[in-house]
Amino acid sequence: MKSVLAGVLALGALIAAEQAHAAEPVQVMVLGTYHFGNPGRDVNNATADDVLSPRRQGELGRLSEELARFRPTRIMVERVGQGADLKPKSWGEFNPDKLQTDRDEAVQIAYRLAHRLKIPVHGIDERDREGEETYFPYDKLMAFADKQGRKAELGALNDPVQAHIRKFEAAQKTQSLPALLAMWNDPASAIGGMSFYYGALNFADGPDTPGANLNARWYLRNARIFTNLMRQSKSGDRVLVVFGSGHGYWLRHFARETPGYLNVDPMPYLKRAATRR
Predict the structure, then answer these.
(1) Does the residue 188 lie in any domain?
(2) Predicted pLDDT at 17
(3) Number of separate domains in the chain
(4) Of 97, 151, 183, 276, which shows the fewest CB atoms inside 10 Å?
């Protein structure tokens, strides 16, 4: 009888342990980046110095060492993935020699770390879909502002972002790359908040609401990006997301608010990497 009872108790403990493991949240660290290769595709573009220089390569190595302390189980990047596992084509073509020639931030941060840790990379980006409005209808907002004589007002919404970019460009002369990334992940910065987007809500005239439309489409893109993240994650995962900093607000919002997910602040890792020598 005792052996039967012991067996029942052991089975119950095993089931409880399995249930607890199944309930482990997915930890998500969103590392917002500037564009290392200066593609110039954004409304407000920063000019980055050469990340292939020996100085920056050393700093990227130290950043990789710090991010490894997060113990990520998978990395997700601003790429369109292919197949069921959303594997980016560029990840399939990666080898360490690319670190000496390719300036892209996904290569320099995400692929460097994934190769080191031997973990998968997923491309979770969402691009404009045929038959749908673009995810960032800024041209319609500009046309509305021009028609209403409010171009200066729209320009003023961009001023804090421009000021942030000028501060960043000046800081490159003295600051390490992890310290520069900290500037792009600071929630109190013009990049970290929603002042531009919510300020754009005021651009409306009757049923014509280009500012609200821009907000709605931008939200949808980021919601679909996070949906891709969810499809590639499983209980207990530790996910590092390397994405343009403009996506940071909403991706962190989803990580905080979605049941079963936890948002992890990247700032302590960046600050430690910035002080390493």
Answers:
(1) yes
(2) 46
(3) 1
(4) 97
